[in-house]
Each structure stands twice: as C-alpha cells, then as structure tokens.
Amino acid sequence: MPTSYAYFEKRIVPLVEARLPVMTHAFLYGTAVFEGIRGNWSEERDEILLFRPREHFERIKMSAQIMKIALPQDVDELVDICEQVVRRCGFREDVYIRPIAYKSGEVIGPRLHDVADDYLMFVLPFGNYLDVEAGIRCQTSSWRRVPDTSIPARAKVNGLYVNSALAKTEAMENGFDEAIMLSDDGHVSEGSGENVVILRHHRLITPERSDNVLEGITLASVMQLAQDELGLEVIERTIDRSELYVADECFLTGTAAHISPVIEVDRRRVGSGALGPVTKKLQALFFDVLRGRNQKYADWVVAVKPAGEAAPAANAAKMNA
Ligand SMILES: Cc1ncc(COP(=O)(O)O)c(C=O)c1O
C-alpha cells in the first residue's frame, strides 16, 4: 500500500511518525527554509521523474546560508535521501516533496545564532494546484511583498510565507484564484507562490530578481524553453501594475502552479481572456519535458522507480473478472 514517508532525525519513517516538539524554534519563530519539488508520474516508464532536484537543493543550501541554518549534507546527499524516500513511498502518481532545514533547538528568543539545526523532508501525493487549462483570475494584493531589507524573498523562509498567506486568502475571499503582490515601490513582484511573466510585443518579461522575488526554477526553465525552442526574446525588468492589464498574455510559474495562464487581473480581461497561443506552446513544451518525453532536456529530470509492483492493466482486468 503506497504511504507517505519522511526523512526525519536521520531516519526514514512513516510520515505519521514524524512529530516535532511544540517548543521547536522553527515553530515558535518561523526560522526554517524549505523547498517544494515535484515528482511527475510517467505511466510509460513506470517511474517518478523528479524535476530539477539538484537546482532545488542548491537553492535550499543558499536559503540556509542566508538564514544561518547549518545544512551539512551536500547536494548529492540531499538528492540521494530524496530519491530513497520517494522510492520507499511507492506512489504511482504525481508527488510533492517538501524538504525543510530548520532551527530544531527548543529555546525561547528570536535569533539565528546558538540554536541547533536539523533537516527533514517528506513526500505527499499531489495533483494540480491552479487551473492550468481554463486559466486563473488574479487580484493585485493590498499586501505588499516583503522587501529584501526586511526578509529576503530570494530565500525560501518559512516565516516569510505569512506574507503569501495574507495575500492568497484576501484574493480568494474576494472571489479571485490568486494574488499578485507589488513591492513597496508599487511595481509587480510575484504571486503568493509563483513568479509572474507577461508577454508584450513578442517579448517575455518578468520582474528583475531585485524586485523581492524568489529566483524561480520553473521560471528559469520556461524562459530557457521560450528562448531556445520558440526564439522569443526574454527580459527581466521592472513591470508596472498597469502593464498587467495591457499584456498580450500573462502567466504564473511555480513548482505547484506549473504554468498557470492568467486570464483576468483586477476584473480586466488579459489578452483574449483565454489561454493564449504562446502560453499554450510553452505549456506543451514544459509538460513534455516534465514527463520525460523530450530527450534534449533529459537532464532536467531524475527518474525514481517506486517500490512495489505496478498493477498491469491485464492483471487488474483478471482480478475484476
Ligand atoms: C513566493 C514564490 N515565488 C515563486 C515561486 C516559484 O518558484 P519555483 O518555480 O522554483 O517553484 C514559489 C514556489 O516555490 C514561491 O513560493
């Protein structure tokens, strides 16, 4: 029976057995950094294909460095632990992997020094997060993106996600699907868990990385596909809020969101108000790469054979007879 497992206190255990004490510093103060990694199920290969795990573990090392969290395992070891846990779960469907490097000491007082650190990760089955086909309706949030001078957004800090949660809930309670946050200076920053991209005059534009954004791995992948496969010019520059309203196309990128077309912003239709032709082409390219169907980008995925047996269609039919 496929089950969620975790790597916890240096052992692989069922997820239900991974429990933290209430005084854990990361719980008291949000002092942890994390990643979200997708494992995409390939029926043809009977394998889960982890999407760019090395890049995710390189990023968690960078986040840990910023937050003074000791993460002694190198990227190879982190990938290896991840593969072992995914294999052990035995899921034959899309999964989501959540690695966390955290302040594990049980002490009172917000600080980063003199608190013990640990590392854990767990795996869950996971489907679509936003509607990648029909598209989503976004609202410019009244919550501003936290500036680098307060909490660095390029580090995936657990406590920073209070900012995302405020924006996401405001947007959803107002009847939208997702929030787009502006920086303090009023320029477009990012979604609650996604980077923002617009298409204007045949160029793909995304905010500069100094605009308080997470340096997205999906974003980098999609921009490379746009450049190399569609010959599009790709630029990073400041984006005004009103440019969202007049963009030819707009989409959000993220591990959870994949490429989610934005069809409306602040009750204004974006482009045709439906999935645009460039977004559609990028989705097709991206999903082929994710599912291991594009040899040119084969090194973007790491294959894991899940434990247990596949249930072949023929056997399933016999059992039902
Ligand atoms: C705030 C934020 N921005 C952007 C992203 C997209 O990053 P990636 O494509 O690496 O998942 C995420 C998701 O991880 C996020 O949480």
Task: Give the CATH topology of the largest domain.
Answer: D-amino Acid Aminotransferase, Chain A, domain 2
Under the CATH scheme, which class of the largest domain? Alpha Beta
Number of domains: 2
Number of helices: 8
Average pLDDT metric: 95
Q: Which hetero compounds are present in the coordinates?
A: pyridoxal-5'-phosphate
**CATH fourth-tier homologous superfamily of the largest domain:** D-amino Acid Aminotransferase, subunit A, domain 2
**How far is the first residue's CA from the last residue's CA?**
22 Å
Tag the structure with descriptive keywords.
nine-stranded mixed beta sheet; 321 residues; D-amino Acid Aminotransferase, Chain A, domain 2; single chain; eight-stranded antiparallel beta sheet; binds pyridoxal-5'-phosphate; 8 helices; 2 domains; disordered C terminus; globular; 27% strand; D-amino Acid Aminotransferase, Chain A, domain 1; alpha+beta; 17 strands
Report on the structure:
The protein has eight helices and 17 strands. It is of the alpha+beta class and 321 residues long. The protein has two domains: 129 residues, D-amino Acid Aminotransferase, Chain A, domain 1; 140 residues, D-amino Acid Aminotransferase, Chain A, domain 2. Strands 8, 9, 10, 11, 12, 13, 14, 15 and 16 form a nine-stranded mixed sheet that branches. Strands 1, 2, 3, 4, 5, 6, 7 and 17 form an eight-stranded antiparallel sheet that branches. β12, α5 and β13 form a beta-alpha-beta unit. α2 crosses α3 and α5 packs across α7. The longest helix has 15 residues. Bound molecules: pyridoxal-5'-phosphate (PLP). The site of pyridoxal-5'-phosphate has 14 residues, from α5 and β14.
